[in-house]
Structure prediction request, 669 residues.
Amino acid sequence: MKTTQLLLAATAAAAVSGCYAVESPPLSGVGAFRVDVQRLSTVADDGTLQPLSVVPTCLKRYNDTLEQVPADQRGKSDCRYVIPTGQVEMQVSVTALGKSGEPMDFNGPVSFKMDPGELAGDYGYAWVQITKGVGVGTLRAQHLFGEVRVLVADEPVKLHYINGAVAGDPTKLPQEPTTRSYASSASLPMYFQEPSLAAIQTPQGFDNRTSPFVNQFVTIGRMPEAGGALKRDCPGIDDNQDVTLLVTGTDPSGFFVTDITACPVPENTSSASGVRVAEPNGYLPGTYGSMFVYNYSFPEGLYPGDLLWTLAGSIQEFTSTTQLTFPSWTVREHVRLRPQDEWEIHLAKNPPVELNLRHCFLDNVLSPFITDILCGYNNKNLKMESLESGLVKMRRVRFPQVFKTCDLNGDATVPSFCQTKDAMGNWIWGNCDTSNPGVDPNAAERQCNADCTTGTGTYANTVCAERTQYTGFGQFVVEMAGPGPREAGLDDTLPARTQVVALSGGASRKTPIGYDTGTQVSVWCEEAAHVRFGDTTVTASTQDELLPARQRKDVITSANGGFVAFLAQTTPEGQAPRCHVAANTHTRMLLITRDAVPDLRVDCDESDTDAERARQCRFLHGATYDVVGHLRQVQAARPRWMVMPRDADDLCCHPGVGLECPKPVQPCK
Prediction:
């Protein structure tokens, strides 16, 4: 009874208070967009559109033929697009939706964005006009990897700036409406390859100075518990192998890492590539699968030979060497938890690539060219770029015989030099600034640096290093082995650089082409032979110097001494043995040893008053060296490519005749 009375009282009170319902106003304005990618193509160099390929594992399911891959399967999680090396064009349909999700009559321009990736091309590819709620536009994008979405937003197009001014053609921008809702939506994901070291390093086009992924944040690899380890996916290779990231070396500011499962890269030898001599196997010498990780400090806990599951960070270029900054990583294996005799077990799977003159971009012709002297000077050289930050080996290099200080004004800097032409149209080394070639306040220092580094003028046939750069950066020039038979300690990758003469025991035979006066040539014969230098009429006789079989002789030609004649010591039987003659290209690289072998005194004097120092200097100059180290590009330096050994074990010596190896370098085994 009491409960009933309370309920009646509450009902009466509600009636007296005047309670009523208020309906919310109807939602208005654009709330979202439906975004559909209708078509996707790559943009070729000539501007034409081509289908974007898919990963090899997907192609294999369709007879390795892209045309047989259904369009609705491309870009799915099990049939990913390859990471494009250039721009991609997409046709995108956009439908405006009200705040309740229904199609609405919306009019105005909306802008495109990419996640991940960035827009490319002019402003006309950055927006689409919506009319009566519907619009179809074309966008261009680049740097696409992983799970990619197209974003559409009712907001102004993002402007690009150069030196504080708007870049690009502003007439391609839409007329800005009076108001913006800032509503935005994304498309369904399109799946591209996961990023790899090789994808990040591979240049866009034929320029080795930068990575197309600069300023992008990437994660390479995957932890097994995060969906399974990534598998390598290479054409023609079906081994289901986990992507393997190997730490190949550390230094005070970071470490080097190589993907030892990276795919072989076919070499592009089209006319646009600038390739001088193609690789015999059809593939680049490297895979683009190595990178320096700049950690700002020593990577505590990492050692050469360790394996990583993942590596993440921001891509930057430093002196045209691509590196990963603000890094993080997860370790797959600490190799030093194994017994000591297994510490090299993973490094042994990644032998260094031996650098040669073909990699340096020299032509396979007898006549030299001015840039032969600087290995990899051409910025189109993708052979060297494919090896960047990886382990390489230089064989039989010579250290500097002379150090020259070219800092004539004492400001601790020396200007660089570039390939240019003089008033007569001849190639020379000169000022890199061609805007005002008649004015060069640093001409004396520049010429000094060029003559020393390239071994010309006063330093002809001499390995010279500029001392200011050695003092400031620790880098110095070394000379690679010249052309000729490998057995003679030379480089046999450019056979046309060598003249071959078949020996006869009854008649003198000579080289068909002579060498200019002052040319350093190497002579090597398969059998003992008498040798004589002279003019076009030169003949060899039994009275001339006898060159023992398989012993090299280096000679600087004198006036009227550019031809070489041979006479076999004995009459050959069967196939005639041969003599090889080749001009030294004096091709040079940079080397830095101060961290790896700090006790090695490179800048030395054979006339030092300290007898032991003078002795060690003679050993240093008389030897040749095999060097292993990481390859880095230093765009402003001359030469542009540098090898950085990790420790003393990366350096060994072939002592000169009657000499020893300089301390603390050990003889090569």
User: Anything to note?
Assistant: The longest helix spans residues 2-17. DSSP finds seven helices and 38 strands in the chain. The two ends are 110 Å apart (CA to CA). Residues 147 and 191 are 5 Å apart (CA to CA).
